[in-house]
């Protein structure tokens, strides 16, 4: 996947979109696709979804499925940095902890709550000064929300101020919260202006993160090469 200024090694959006097109248009006969990427082999699996009565037309149910993406865990490590400068970049947000991902070099900032995450008004000029590719911010979700944790991902160095929903960031987020919350299955909310929901499973034994969701085709076109 290529942004306006860089090529990224792991991209959930691009993998999900490619899988959706291949599955939906019958371009693959298998329910499993393997992609050879800069991060290694990534697997996408077609998972049948329970039939919704509203999807039944003329007595026939339209095929409905989820796509499960199998990604490697992205480890995090302790990182020593002036919390004041990070807080300034995040509009004076209160900071509990700062880590760094070992794969992409993203800063991983933990705030007291998901509410704090959602209310951030980032200073992108200050974020550009931070080390690493981008800044992942996360906090425990409010109990009444129905989610386990909230997150956002700011990446102006890649030509995108904020990623609406970031699969690669959740490869670091899910293992972190798995240890903190003592569980392996999550419903996560990315609190970007567009927002998004992720169904996640952490396979600790095999060091994998399974992201499950749906995709839709919004436009079609042709490219002459």
From TrEMBL:
Give the record's keywords alphabetically: Isomerase
Entry keyword Secreted: no
Which SUPFAM superfamilies does its entry note? Diaminopimelate epimerase-like
The entry's cellular-component GO terms read: cytoplasm
Instruction: Provide the GO MF annotations for this entry.
Output: isomerase activity
Q: Record's PANTHER family?
A: PHENAZINE BIOSYNTHESIS PROTEIN, PHENAZINE BIOSYNTHESIS-LIKE DOMAIN-CONTAINING PROTEIN
Q: Which family does it belong to?
A: Belongs to the PhzF family.
Quote the protein name from its UniProt record: Phenazine biosynthesis-like family protein
Q: Which organism is it from?
A: Populus trichocarpa
Per the UniProt record, the lineage of the source organism begins with: Eukaryota, Viridiplantae, Streptophyta, Embryophyta, Tracheophyta
């Amino acid at each position: 996947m290529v942004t306006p200024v860089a090529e990224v090694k792991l991209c959930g959006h691009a993998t999900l979109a490619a899988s959706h097109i291949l599955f939906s248009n019958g371009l693959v006969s298998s329910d499993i696709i393997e992609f050879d990427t800069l991060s290694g082999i990534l697997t996408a699996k077609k998972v049948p979804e329970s039939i919704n009565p509203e999807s039944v037309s003329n007595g026939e149910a339209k095929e409905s499925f989820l796509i499960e993406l199998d990604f490697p865990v992205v480890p995090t490590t302790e990182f020593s940095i002036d919390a004041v400068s990070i807080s300034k970049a995040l509009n004076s947000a209160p900071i509990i902890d700062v880590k760094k991902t070992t794969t992409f070099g993203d800063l991983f900032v933990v705030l007291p709550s998901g509410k704090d995450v959602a209310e951030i008004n980032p200073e992108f000029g200050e974020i550009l000064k931070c080390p690493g590719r981008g800044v992942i911010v996360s906090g425990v979700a409010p109990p009444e929300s129905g989610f386990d944790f909230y997150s956002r991902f700011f990446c102006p160095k890649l030509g995108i101020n904020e990623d609406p929903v970031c699969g690669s960031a959740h490869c670091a987020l899910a293992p972190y919260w798995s240890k903190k919350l003592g569980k392996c299955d999550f419903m996560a909310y990315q609190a970007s202006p567009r927002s998004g929901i992720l169904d996640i499973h952490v396979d600790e034994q095999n060091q994998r993160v399974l992201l499950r969701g749906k995709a839709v085709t919004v436009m079609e076109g042709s490219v002459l090469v």
